[in-house]
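Researcher: Re-running this chain for the archive, since the previous output was lost when a drive failed. Same request as before.
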Amino acid sequence: MKIARFISSCSLLTVLTVGAQRVDNAEYFWDIDPSAGNANPMSAVDGAFNDAVEAIFLETATLPAIGAHTLGIRVKDQQNNWGPTFTTVVLVEPPVVTAPEISVTQAEYFWDTDPGQGSGTPMVAFDGDFNSALEAIALETATLPPTGVHVLNVRVKDVNDAWSLPFSVVVEVLGGAVTFPQIRVSACEYYVNDDPGPGLGTPMLAVDNNFDAAFEAIKGGGIPAPVTAGVNVLWMRAKDVNESWGPSFGVVVNIDTTITGTVAILDEQPWSMQLSPNPTSDDAGFSILFDRPIADALIRVLDGAGRVILERQVRQERRMDLRIPHAAPGVYHVGLIIGGLPRWERLVVQ
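Model: Regenerated structure tokens:
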């Protein structure tokens, strides 16, 4: 590929006309003028010749021989009048060397005093691989300097083993530990059709007989009277530990008041599980320990917003080892679902 370099100073070609004038066409030629309308066509940068002032560009894939050449450019208005030719001298040079590969191969950080290049604390790439020119990197904050104001310095190394200058930022280290707010359901209620107001619906029960988790399996009792047989809207809502009721969730149901008797509901879950270690980190992961072999079940991990971030089928296990890579610090909820009945445990990621 040949590269063109301008010898003389030139500026962006523009044509200014009065009234309703606009640029209708543009062309260019090298060295010898083939006459107006017979040169190489040019393109408008915005894809349309429709203004009196246009930004235009020429095709440089095919250039004349190496050396100095004269480039001529002219434009035509909507009355088919070609303007004067603008010329400039261009030096066509041999192909240039391809750009070197640029990628980050290592990163490190240090507090306050520089221990020297390569002697800082190693940092980790978020995607597990230093292979790009721009990398998202993470530092370990389990060990921090003493409480007070400190300077955090970060630098990276490229494929040529050249370290960058340190990037520095002032950080204030505070005493104490980070705590997470308690998130759990404290009560649930339901109503049919008309809302009686928060707290005035029919109370619901936790399947495990205890509202102590952020996600709960709940069950109702008798249908509140009076209820008309047929299609109705059943509404449910939950209250948190701060006594705040959430929005109502509604579903259309067909109520049959002729059915006698009740459907048995399992009052107690016949299994249990334990998360270890808890708290954990995204790198370390965690294990789920069952009190007996579990089969035909589903493990589901939710983040604090209720989004599913991991699902695994349980075939015939007493232990499952899981990882949630790149998980942000916070509270997650791990559910074991068997036969539609879930059991939830809270997992803290630091």
